[in-house]
Design a protein that fits this description.
binds glutathione, 4-stranded mixed β-sheet, 8 helices, about 220 residues, Glutathione S-transferase Yfyf (Class Pi), Chain A, domain 2, alpha+beta
């Protein structure tokens, strides 16, 4: 049985869970907080980062590596398109959200509204939150332009880019960092994601000590 070492508000773990559930892979969750530098996580992944997926002696770390492994080994629900150009676009948009959106939006929000609250019991820095909100607005605008000409973020079919974007956006939204107003196309796309059973499982979970806004898991937000 696959075991996924993760925590509820880790966007990279969410991406892996979303992909595995879409593909019908059976796994169990092992909750762990990377900042605790636990013995098991550090042994499995010397980088001491979540997510890590293990099955006996096989250990996979890093969300991209894990999702690629399953895209190569499980035929159901392919995550990147059939043609080389389609695959390149899926990877480009996925990386945009995994790296750029994470650095400018998700990571600052996690530090200010999750880590400070749960670990160091400090107040969030309003300046950092406002900067993350400005960055989020620019990313939503970019997604809006992509979705003007496509059904899904990287093309006509759901896949890797949607998974990484949904994972990052859902954590930012949980931490009250997303203003959806004025982004009709993105809202429509996110509504379609919210109706997917795999994503609903993820949205149904709560991180102890932090409550999301009321609209968070509402399909008609
Ligand atoms: N490139 C990795 C990034 C994983 C990552 O940064 N995970 C965060 C939690 S969401 C973490 O473990 N941070 C602790 C650290 O970097 O020390 C991936 O895509 O899986």
């Amino acid at each position: 049985m696959w075991r996924l070492h993760q925590f509820t508000l880790c966007p990279f773990s969410r991406a892996v869970r979303f992909g595995l559930l879409e593909k019908g892979v059976v796994f169990e969750l092992v909750d762990c907080l990377p900042w605790e530098r636990g013995e098991t996580l550090t042994r499995l992944n010397p980088a001491a980062q979540t997510p890590v997926l293990e099955n006996g002696s096989l250990v996979l770390a890093d969300s991209t590596t894990i999702l690629e492994y399953f895209d190569e080994t499980v035929e159901k629900a392919p995550l990147v398109g059939a043609g080389a150009a389609e695959r390149a676009e899926a990877r480009r948009v996925a990386q945009w959200f995994r790296e750029k959106f994470y650095a400018e939006v998700t990571a600052p929000l996690m530090r200010e509204r999750m880590w400070k609250r749960l670990v160091v019991r400090d107040m969030p820095d309003g300046r950092v939150i406002r900067e993350a909100a400005r960055a989020c607005e620019a990313h939503l605008q970019y997604a809006e332009t992509l979705l003007m000409e496509r059904r899904w973020l990287a093309g006509p079919t759901f896949g890797l880019a949607d998974i990484h974007a949904a994972a990052q956006l859902s954590v930012a939204d949980y931490l009250a960092g997303v203003d959806w107003a004025g982004h009709g196309q993105v809202k429509q796309w996110y509504q379609a994601l919210k109706s997917r059973p795999a994503f609903r499982v993820i949205l149904g979970e709560r991180m102890e000590g932090i409550r999301p806004p009321a609209h968070y898991d509402d399909p008609d937000f």
